[in-house]
Amino acid sequence: xxxxxxxxxxxxxxxxxxxxxxxxxxxxxxxxxxxxxxxxxxxxxxxxxxxxxxxxxxxxxxxxxxxxxxxxxxxxxxxxxxxxxxxxxxxxxxxxxxxxxxxxxxxxxxxxxxxxxxxxxxxxxxxxxxxxxxxxxxxxxxxxxxxxxxxxxxxxxxxxxxxxxxxxxxxxxxxxxxxxxxxxxxxxxxxxxxxxxxxxxxxxxxxxxxxxxxxxxxxxxxxxxxxxxxxxxxxxxxxxxxxxxxxxxxxxxxxxxxxxxxx
Length: 263
Description:
The protein is α/β, with parallel strands linked by helices. It is built from 8 helices and 12 strands. It has a single domain (38-72, 106-255), classed as Ribosomal Protein S5, domain 2. The strands form 4 sheets. Strands 6-1-5-8-11-12 form a 6-stranded mixed β-sheet. It comes from Streptomyces flavalbus.
């Protein structure tokens, strides 16, 4: 026998599958990572009590100011990110939702990802050293550079490593500091020939930079728009495409001579 349901009950009964679906969606893990501004470190100074840059075989300058590499912190590869976390991240100005595959290599275990990031950091340090010494017309036969930065992986500190080496050995090229005494921050990969590459997460990195006192941020030129999207007040963006261009821009900013590009 067919019995007609009253309207309120019909709504409740028809709504049950929808509610069940919503509960399932809310509880299901999603292929995203949630990121936020991470730590910064002055490559001209020490990190956890150990100098970031150690140089032998050449005279090293006493430097003023800071050159801060920047990071983002993301949920770990095995964290179960759910719809609520994604929605919170989308609405928050100090978080970003990113495809997990863009943060971590797909299909790898946590240990494999850690090894991958460590290897990327090692390659970045080698490239940064080669780029800086080549810019200064020096060779690693004459100058020994050691780079140490604890608990950080990936290649995005390459530009700042190179700038730190240049500042310690040559400054602005005219006896002054490359920083001009300022707190300079930035990000960018680097190749042995000095080409600067994009990194991702720059909007979060600008927030980390400003939080830690930076007034200038070096950003790969291709990521200017991303950097401007959530730019903190008091932080000036300088786009870069090469180590040489970054040095020239900082030297012009430091001595007040020449033009300094902007995004």
